[in-house]
Amino acid sequence: MFCFSGDFLGAPGCGCPGFPNLASTTWGLWLVDLVPMYAVALPVSLLIFRKVPARQGVSGSKNGVPLKAGQIVRSVFIIIFLTNAGNVVGILVTRILGALAGTSTESALGSYAMDTSVWLQILFMSVVGPFFEELIFRKLLIDRMSCYGGKLAVVTSALMFGLSHGNLSQFFYTFAMGLLCGYIYLKTGRLRYSAGLHMGINFLGVMESFVMLSMVSLPDGVGDMTVRQLVMALVMVIGIVAVVAATIIGLVMFNRARKTVLYENEPLEIPKGSRFRTAYCNIGMALFVLACVIMFVTSLI
């Protein structure tokens, strides 16, 4: 007999001997959060995608166009700006809603990620997660939607990517990230570019969290610090200045790059007046949005 009550996740008194107390270990919490996604949602998604033919070639080209070194560098700065800007918006929105609701809006994953080994965070948040998310939301989805309009495919991919995170604190920066990664994949047809950017920005996020936690543990007074702590504090300050500078540079590059964004006309492109109704007013999308809204609401309760 299986026990699916809250006791299974760690409350005492569960009458199901043999089951581990998952909530008592970091690995257990990661498994509770990630197994449904990768053991259930991913296989189901792959089965559904198999029924829809993928497009042969992207952006009117059989193999797409690879990015040059300069374009990769610009993309790195732009994604730093987009994610930081989206993160600020997400924090403001969730703080306001949290204050109105009188609850905390921190995501479940974020609440215990900070108690995890930095190597475990890098594995799940900077490698495994980004790879599968790019596989689903960029390659599998855009390959099947781009023939109906490149812009529609990129926006839909970014929207579903942002909604799938299930909370407002992550929605805004993941949506912004999805727009850039989706456009890059559409133009290049190579998953390594969008996956590399995604992994890189998540890695920076893990390191930023690690630095912030390290700052909390530092003594209040400079005179109370050891040489090692002084060096650590200096490195932290340099890192913060570097992130701010990269964000400003990214803003400048974003303003220049957005003027060059171009979507090719597709042979099966949906007319402008019908795009929203066709892409979003259907039972599949309605169920997906409903599930995401439920996750959003529960994150606010």
Question: Helices, strands, pairings?
Answer:
Layout: H1 26-50, H2 69-101, H3 108-113, H4 118-145, H5 150-163, H6 168-188, H7 191-216, H8 227-257, H9 272-280, H10 283-300
Beta strands, count: 0
Averaged pLDDT: 80
Helical content, roughly? over 70%
State the order of secondary-structure elements, H for helix, E for strand: HHHHHHHHHH
Uncertain segments are 1-19
Question: How does the overall form come out from the CA principal axes?
Answer: globular
Tally of helical segments: 10
Give the class from helix and strand content and strand pairing: mainly alpha
The rounded Rg comes to 21 Å
Largest sheet at a glance?
none
Approximate strand percentage: under 5%
Q: How far apart are the termini? A: 31 Å
